[in-house]
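Hi team,

Filling in the usual template for the complex we talked about on Friday. All components are listed, including any nucleic acid strands or ligand strings, so the model treats them as one assembly.

SUBMITTER: L.P.
PURPOSE: interface mapping
COMPONENTS: two
RESIDUES: 864
SEQUENCES:
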Amino acid sequence: MQYTATISRMKAAGAPPRLSGFAQWADRHFKWLLVAPAVLLILALSIYPLLFSLVVSFINYDFQVPGHAFVGLKNFERVVFDPVARWSLLLTAWLSGVSVAIEFVLGLLVALTMVRGFPGRGVIMSILIVPLFISPVIVGQAWTLLLQRPFGPTNYILTQLLGQEVTIGWMTEAPWLYASLIIADVWQWTPFMFVILLAGLTAIPPNLYEAAELDGVNAWQAFWAITLPHLAPMMLLALTFRLLDAIRMFDTIFIMTGGGPGTRTYTASYYLYTVGFTQFHLSQATAGSWLFLVFTALVVTLLVRRLLKAEPV
Amino acid sequence: MNDHEKRDYQAGLEAEVDAFMRGETTRRTFITRFGQMTGMLAASGPILGMMTDWALAQQKLELADAGSPLGQAQAAAMKASMEGPADGSAFRAVEAAKAHSGVTLNMTYEAGLQALDPRNFSGPMWEQLTGMKSNVVELSNPDQYSKAVAEHIAGSGAYDVLDISPAWTPSLADGGVIAPLDDYIAKYMNLADLEDYHPLYKALPTYKGKVWGFFDDGDMFALYYRKDIFEDPKMVEAYQAKFNAKLAPPKTWEEYAQIAQFITDQMAPNVYGAGHFRKAGSPGNQFDFLQQYRANGGKLFGDDMKAGLVSDAGVKTLQNMIAANAASIPGNNELDAVSLWAAFLTGKVAMIYSWPPSGRMAANYSQSATAINFIPQSQIAGKVGYAVVPGNPEHATGYNKALSADSANPEAAYLFMQWICSPPVSLARCMLPYALRDPYRISHFKSELYGALFPSAKEYLSNLNNSANVGLLDPIMPGAQDYFLSIDRMCTAVWAGADPKASLETAAAEWNETTDRLGVDSQKAFYTEFLKLPGATADNTVEKLGMAVTL
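RESULT (copied from the run log):
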């Protein structure tokens, strides 16, 4: 406390220690200096590219057409009037909706099964969540190896099981190619639903079930009256996260079907990738990305609003 | 400073001094340490860069056994570079390049096997000869175009030597991304080496009267078939009985589908008549359609630059391809190039047409390199015959070495290009077992050393030369990617059951949209330039122009 005393004496003498102008300025704006690096980083890596992409969507930025002339809404027009773009948006909605619905149902069933303790539960849970840690590209490749004719074993196994020759083109024939994509997605992401829902289930107070049991409520009634209302926020959270991820579906399609046959498995992400990085129409791809962002933002807003309203009964 | 500010200031200072006395971090120490940390981070960039460079440094020069044909070709390349002949392009390049010792050349290569040559062989050898280092930048095929353009727009000078598809030359030349080589060629090259190119490939880097690179990869499609099946007396007899014709490699696409179906009928499920890489996104569809369509008399564009796809030739081509698919191995439409090789090498398929590595793999030569061990060992070595694809085979893309217009060391980069594409060096590179660089010089096709690589190598080289004599080039013009993509979509839609005529109409509409986007007049000018090239159509192949090479 010796220095405190010194300062006190200096104060009494009315002679504050002299600091340079910069040091005084730095002291006054210390809090801003602390956050400045993070702000600059965000501006450089996020805001600037975002603004630049907005500019790009209104100019010609095509690696095959020289110059960057202002083209107004032309790039947006090209996307809006491109039947492939419209199809890819529909397919994205359909594929992500179906995949997430199946993942939700399966995830809930597995979570309900695993919520009670039993021997080997830990090991089974560890195995169940393994797909979550695998890159979607690897998942796509693995399912390709399983399904692709003539080397994949799937048709052979089905032939043995059904007793008649199965010759399904899993990645070239509709509707099987959609089934293949959904299977791969469900295999990888059902564990995500399971983990979130299991966390929700374990958080429900057990005394509610005990009270219900004393009241003579059966398991089905307990599920509807206790489990479902308490789990609803977690369900919505899981659905929101998963849906936001699913609408960006790209990797498995890139590996498994290459967008084909024709353009039948073009999702929005795959369409944008093709326009931008196969055809090099970067400004059209950027305009498409902004349109896709608007659609995504609408979905996000709806889901988040619903999520914020959802509260356990 | 008013009283209130003074009070705040002094209170803050007291708190700081007290904190300092207690050994706690003060604002100033925080700022000091933060500054130190920032400085260290800034300094760590170059250090990390150096460590990365070290980690990614070229491996040592890998040389084959000196007694092997490859070893001899490598020794010959080294000798030609060091001792001459004094007027040889390799020797002159090395001599001039010594003045640039210490320079690092940044060069793009397709990621994977293509990049092993500069990493393991040509890069280290060049460094040994000249003291120039090479930094290999591996990119996916589309990125070899887009990154080159992006870096040019940014003016970064990131690349010195570019590996590009010949189809991109007009766009990159007009866009100022690549530089012409004429002055350097006049100064350094032995012009006789230009005459050593097969005529199909010689003009590929030429555009608007200037030379924009050196051709460096003869990606000629050829037919590879099972001789043992085609010469099997029972099969020959059965074919004769059924079609009153000799069982031989097909000369027309109708015959191709017929033979494929015949073999499938006779030998499936052990062996199927044919296989193709038809998966969406694998380039087999576009190459196959383009070669058959033009062999059937189809025109890519009319005089008004409208797509010529919706024609009898278009419908006939798709019908032939559908017939061939039906006669092929189950899952034909799901195969990519590597899967097709696997099917052929394991003996499941009697005929394929694909790139030149097919022949080297079938002879089990490529598989001697561990880098290519994802391909199965050949079970058909010694049983494979070579033939020209029915009609006219496609020269399926290929590569040009081009000089980046933004290179900081353009002369050094040019000299490397001249050296690596010179006859003795390029021969040694094409002979590397893991290489995907395929023969393209007349001296390659005539090489005794290459001919000794595997028992049937001479027939293999002869067939590649004969294929080039009647070969067709991919369209070389802006928008090529768009046109190709439309063909791929059209084909895969047809394989999935879409109507061929309707699919041709869809593809034609997409082609027209692409042409409109790029400018009809401009595209017409490019197309007119393209049509001047030998091999642009089935009517002006090298052979029909009287320039065929006989070995």
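MY TAKE: Residues 27-55 of chain B form the longest helix (29 residues). Chain B touches chain A through 51 residues (CB under 8 Å).

Thanks, L.
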